[in-house]
Amino acid sequence: MSDTALAGDRPWDSLPNGHAIASMHRKTVEVPGADWAVQMDVTPQVVNSSGAVQGGLLATLIDLVAGIALLEGPEPYDQTTTMDMHVTFHRGACVGPVLATAHVLRRGGRSASVRVEVVDLGADSLHIATGMLTFAARRSPPPDRGEGR
Amino acid sequence: MSDTALAGDRPWDSLPNGHAIASMHRKTVEVPGADWAVQMDVTPQVVNSSGAVQGGLLATLIDLVAGIALLEGPEPYDQTTTMDMHVTFHRGACVGPVLATAHVLRRGGRSASVRVEVVDLGADSLHIATGMLTFAARRSPPPDRGEGR
Amino acid sequence: MSDTALAGDRPWDSLPNGHAIASMHRKTVEVPGADWAVQMDVTPQVVNSSGAVQGGLLATLIDLVAGIALLEGPEPYDQTTTMDMHVTFHRGACVGPVLATAHVLRRGGRSASVRVEVVDLGADSLHIATGMLTFAARRSPPPDRGEGR
Amino acid sequence: MSDTALAGDRPWDSLPNGHAIASMHRKTVEVPGADWAVQMDVTPQVVNSSGAVQGGLLATLIDLVAGIALLEGPEPYDQTTTMDMHVTFHRGACVGPVLATAHVLRRGGRSASVRVEVVDLGADSLHIATGMLTFAARRSPPPDRGEGR
Question: Cβ(C62)–Cβ(C108) under 8 Å?
């Protein structure tokens, strides 16, 4: 788990020019006890007129972190699709960077659920938001190794 | 109600260069029976690796439309803050444009709730997502008109 | 669709003595345009200390109505399990009866989503709550008709 | 902290005969690190046809525990009203007792948010559900101490 090495492994490492998510300055970080964690800077490119991270963009960060947590780590899935997303916004994220930490609560055969907590590291780790997401998720069938190779 | 006339009235009409939300090609449209409605194109700048609008960015669109519905129209609020956002994703939005339609369900003194439905106009108006949002909302106190009269 | 005929077809028609749900005085009603609808009286057995239907019990009603809507009607499922439930409470239900109306938004192969609206009929159909539920759902495999029977 | 001593202080200690919530055999328990916790038995009076606690009744338990956590403990509120409730059901609760543990995430001037986790103690503390609730909440104005002192 590192914030540099795995280019190409994750769906959001390479993005077309001008992609909305490319405007979000992120890096993967290691957080003990978490299944995945990403930091994002609070830049003019992601805030609303009050100077806090726009709620939908924070939801985007939460969605990314939760999804990657299912694609990496133990018993990884090969594909995930968000079915349900619930975010409670406790306070505005105005300083940054924000840290989004994913905890996989259930890894089922066809669906999975993930909780994500977001804090503002620059504001004494103020608790910003809690997300709960349910994903449709599948693992590839084991590759057929019988073809003589 | 138009997509051109009210520049400056709404918080997302002018954005700093490179803002994530500026990557979302949107325009306000008029939909009978709706409190507000916005169309967004399905461009390479907002899709995931499956070619569908990324879930968090769809949540961002839903948040924008719901918030503007409270700032415009009857009994408008002066400020809104998203407290809770729930989005159920029914299907992927792959063709576009998508149409997000807001219906204000409650306009309270200090909070308000809005439902948003999203369809993919290019896919025979396929139902894409349903959002339910609760906002903290306030109206300015009526201006004191007694000064100097 | 009736409130009398299908005893035994629906899981909540017969309940053990003293079951919590038996305290909720309900009846199925027909509502044009809805996939299922149930009325419930506002009795002392379901209200909180403010005299409004307790929020969790309203969520229980919402869950029942949504689940039955998937077991009845077109393309019925054979089994459903609630995965995600979100309820926004707009106002208290104090008069009654309340009417909960289910609208199935998606009937997928393995999951389904349902929206439920609740109004207080005795209070000029005041809008009480909106529920969004996602279910894991399955249909029985078609019976094998090839065995010569 | 006990399930007997504070009769009258909490809204669910005395219920009219036959109240739906009276069918839920509950007791308050002390859990280190939690803001409030309640155990409930898995009896025939609260299960569905699969033998698991009915989802809405589990939501009812979650709502109760979250609400009491705000009425007790530090900086207690005098009145709370559930505005938004989201529950993700991870697995069925079939053995019991279940333990619902509330964690207050934000105590604001007019609203508060609470997370509740439910485990099945009889099934090796299997994780059953996660709830996130937002309440409108108020404290009484401080009593006027100027009268005659």
Answer: no
pLDDT computed for residue A143 by the predictor: 57
Residues of B in contact with D86 (CB under 8 A): 84, 86
Q: What was the pLDDT predicted at C144?
A: 55
B85 touching D, CB under 8 A?
A: no
> What does the CA dihedral A15, A21, A26, A29 come to, rounded to 10 degrees?
-80
**Which positions in chain A touch B92 (Cβ < 8 Å)?**
81
Instruction: State the ipTM, two decimals.
Output: 0.88
Chain A contact for C15 (CB, 8 A cutoff): no
How many whole angstroms separate alpha carbon C116 and alpha carbon C136?
Answer: 17
User: Cα(B49)–Cα(A79) distance, rounded to whole angstroms?
Assistant: 11
Which domains are assigned to chain A? 20-138 (3.10.129.10)
The distance of C143 to chain B (nearest Cα, Å) reads: 29
Residue C121's φ and ψ, nearest 5 degrees, are -60, -35
Pick the residue from chain A with its C-alpha nearest to B80. A50
Quickly state the pLDDT bin for A94 (edges 50, 70, 90). Answer: very high
Nearest-angstrom CA–CA distance, C11 and D48 = 8
